[in-house]
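Assemble and predict.
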Amino acid sequence: MSSVIDRAGLNALVETLAARGYRVVGPTVRDDAIVLAELSSGADLPDGWGVDVAPGSYRLHRRTDAAVFAHSTGQQSWKEFLHPPRRPIWSSDGSTYRLADDEPPRYAFLGVRACDLASIAVLGRVLGGGAQPDGSFQRRRQGLFVIAVGCTEPGGLCFCASLGTGPAPGPGYDLSLTERVDDAGATYVVTVGTDEGAQVLADLEHREATPAEVDEADAAVAAAAEHMGRELPDTDLRTLFRDGRESPIWDEVANRCLTCGNCTMVCPTCFCTTTEDQTDLAGGTAERSQRWASCYEIDFSYLHGGSVRVSGANRYRQWISHKLGTWQDQFGSSGCVGCGRCIAWCPVGIDITVEAGKLAEEARDVHD
Amino acid sequence: MYTTEELARFPLLADLTESQLERVGSLGHTVTFATGHRIIEEGRPADRCWLIRSGRVALQTPLPNNAASTVQTLGPGDVLGWSWLLAPYRWRFDGVATEPVEAIEIDAVQLREFATHDCRLGYPLAMRLLEALADRLHGTRARLIDMYGSPRAS
Amino acid sequence: MLADPMLPVPYSVARRHVETADSATLLLEPVAEALPAFEPGQFTMLCVPGVGEVAISISGANGTGTLTQTVRDVGAVSRALHDAEPGATLGVRGPYGVGWGVASAIGRDVVVVAGGVGLAPLRPVVLALLADRASFGRMVLIVGARNPEEFLFREQLLGWTQHSDLEVELTVDVPAPEWVGPVGFVTEPLARLDIDPTRTTAFLCGPEPMMRFSADVLLRKGVAAEHIRVSLERNMKCGVGLCGHCQLGPLLVCRDGPVVTYDVAAPLLAIRGL
């Protein structure tokens, strides 16, 4: 059974989550972009803002309506909070080791798109699904409250439909919203995913959704699948990339790729990290911290004497082949959720869907 | 003594027919060398070759200061000596037994005669010899890479 | 609080044995808590606080909670580990990774081929084989080094050459004045071996070309790639499949290796810059 809340209900939602002890994080406008940040109130949400995205380009624009969630994914993703860019691991006096204090806030994520919800699940399999899970990630994810939003207006770089990760949010949310905007303003059809979600909803002024409202919301989300700006080739990507390791396309991409690593920073599932040690000036205490790393760094694959992946072609191939192919071998699912961030934030506009498409076309030519 | 069956187990002769093995076998006899014996010497006529049954032979070249110069050692199953097949038919290295060696010594002048006039014998023999040389060249090149060397040195 | 796989356990250096000009073997004893027992072929992450942490092979037998690890000085962290004197405290995490699977060779002939410091992770294999000698068929150990000074565990190797249960061939790349043993790459004594390919399991460790060349010799002899195991090396930061550094195609070498069968390794090692 679904319910309906209005725009004021979103403000109440932020309030009740804060009252329940959550740090509420959601989209807000800052520095000409929609960023994910702690919301002090529902008023921080980006009412009436939309975005135009294209390869290498992201611009905010004013919408003609008051939609809050009609903007596609921004530069940040939720991994920023679940798998922070930097975190201390331990400190040592030289003979004993003490785990860094790490009692993360209980986060409530407001406005998690289907692709990003899927990315949290992907990260969960990588960082939390193995024999030795990442304690920091586990702690952050454990207390998480998720309010998903169904996508009704995909961006020009979206391709979640190709991966089955959207536009309708999959499992993993406490509440899910579908936004509907008309002259009277925005309303939200709310679907409850968990008991806690139901309790939070009970705090809000809401009414039961009519069957027509539910159907309309479902239809709007389903229709979004037909309006994806991008798509991946309809083929077995794991096999495609395994068999395409020696394709000439890698050298061609390398002519454009700056190996800057932007795609890995904005990707909601890129999880690679490295560690750094620091000592105090007296040398008595050492601290180890972890920070995001990128497979585009030349020394990422360093072995005594030199790096394995020296050329840009080697490093681009590693990134895309891992994301779409070998991730499946390693973690049982694709590493890509179709959010399109890597395309928008590539300074030269390299498009993962186009490159995958070229490889698929080349494979077809070989087999024809 | 030795049987054609034993001869066929040497890679050099592995592709020969029974009757070819008998012909080659008729050119040979077993020999033993004590440790330190110089079996072949650089520059001398290459008129024999040996199929090593046991022991070890070091290939060396004389240095004026008598320093170690072993470039390679050969062991059981290996053929010692191939310069008999190529002009000017002179040894290019010394071959010294570094352990007691037992081998089948073959008259290589006769063997070259056979091989030259009967390509059905000569071709498989030459190909097997080429294979042995290719493997030795590969091993030598692998050592040239100095792959166990310290990466710090580079 | 959940246990954190990134937190080292302190071990102290009980003994340090200089192996070669740039390698030393450390005997490590737990300061308090000991790590779980290891399988031959597994590794640990060894750490010098303030300097860093690297993956190091376990090179001795499972003891009473102690760890024997052989370190080659090839960088800042390995130098600090290599130079650690008795009494020093190091941080240890592990043991990690998939080992050699010695038990899979029970009832079979075993050929062990090691090149350079590649002998370190193979020594536990030889010790395990000798400890259960009756369970295995023929046992061959071929060890290559640059020169006679660069064999790890030299005294033990020389002892093994006297062992009737084990056929040992020590071969050097470069001749040396006092060396009367074999001179040649490990592929040469390997090629001379008269083995039954259907009942042979091979364990190879050393530089990648050395493993490829040795595997090629074994394949030519008819040994199936599934019965040839190699130990791979890639950059590792975490050792537990979380940091992404050690990828080799579909493998996370720390988690799916370091030991893999050659049917898995061969197509990956054939791709440049993978």
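Chain B touches chain A through two residues (CB under 8 Å).
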